[in-house]
Model the fold of this input.
Amino acid sequence: MRDGSHRGWIDRGEMRRLLSLVGPLYIANLLHMGMGVIDTIVAGRAGATELAGVGLGAAVSAPILVAVGMVLTITTPMISRLRGAGNPGRIGALLHSGLHLAWFLMAVELVALYLGSFIFDYVTDDAGMAHTARWYVYFMMTGVPASVLLRLIQGNFEGNGQVRPGMVAALLGLGLNIPANFLFVFGWGPFPAMGGAGCGLATSIIHWAMVLGLLALMFASRRHRQAAQCMVSRRKPNRQQVRKILRLGFPLGVASLCEMTFFSALTPVIAPLGKIAVSAHQIVINMSGVVFMLPLSLSIATSIRAAYHVGAENRPAFTALMRTAAACAFVAMAFFMSGLLCFSEEIVSFYTHEREIIQIAVPLVTLCAVYQLSDTTQAFLSGLLRACHDTKALTWVNIISYWLVGFPIAVILIRTDWLCPQLGPAGAWVSFIVGLTLAAVLLLIRFAGTFRRTFPKGR
Done:
């Protein structure tokens, strides 16, 4: 048995390594999410119409941007596995293949965003809301190349166990986001006021600043310079490797799209109930995203460490990591559940002072607290499955949990009284609980089989 015997539930050495990754990842993800929070707060200050418009625009653009970018996040565990197997010299070739795939993904993302911009006139009769949402998407399109490349370059640093560069880039982005949002939303000097749509332009500019900063760091670093030069070389791509990245990453993109669109598609379902209902729902969605940053960060860190142990074929270390990460995940879950239940009104009041919105949003925060157990569990298991290169299961679990089960329940609860009195926005959050719980159960079953296949007895 390599690495000695791992006694007890928590392995202290693995805990230190895991937390050294989780800390910067959490800060980086929180800063990324903070940009969305700032968008919501600034748009809210511009009025309920602008806030609702940004919510609708984000409901279309966010799933597309995240889903396409998720295809390239598979490079993180792939790089970590190369390191675990003692093959770090092959990282540059992997990044080169990833860059060629990135050009194709950019085209897909631009087309998807443009087509998505036509939906707003069909889901709301509020012309101002639709106008803001449409131009928000148009402005987001200007940052598409940067958002795709950002995933690939961050994957290089994270796969090498270096998560601080991403944290610094996110800090830079947040620092730029605050003045940029106020500049483009409210206008100043030669810059006209763009309303909520200006949040989209600010986000695109920030993506460009972040990716250029990280790319410059790659070329300046002795450790990464060779990989960076290989990544941008003009040689022909390794088609087999491009196909492998796509084969493993595409299910992640589809799974992410299923999850994101499930959450986002309910905003148009709520839209006919009025801008107050949409604004309340958007605030809690945004707040929920902030809370999810810690389970997400732990999932990424777990995936990095687990992939390294898979590459090294080290079952005892993988098991120790799994137990340690599970303990961390559920401590974090308990902390956030308590905070949401105790300070729901204070949290909502941070976003808006409109009493009508607060009255609708506060009960939604309580429902959000309830699903933290399921959300944390599914995020944790997803990270382990990515490390094992078992990504197809994530797609099917999300399709079943969110679209075949969750979405129909949401529509019924939000808009009808078939099962109970019409719940309005609360119906969406009840469906989130159902969908996430089912996803957690199915992923647990899948991982049990994947673990046995990855580490047969005796290895």
In short: The first helix runs from residue 12 to 45. The two ends are 9 Å apart (CA to CA). Residues 388 and 453 are 10 Å apart (CA to CA).
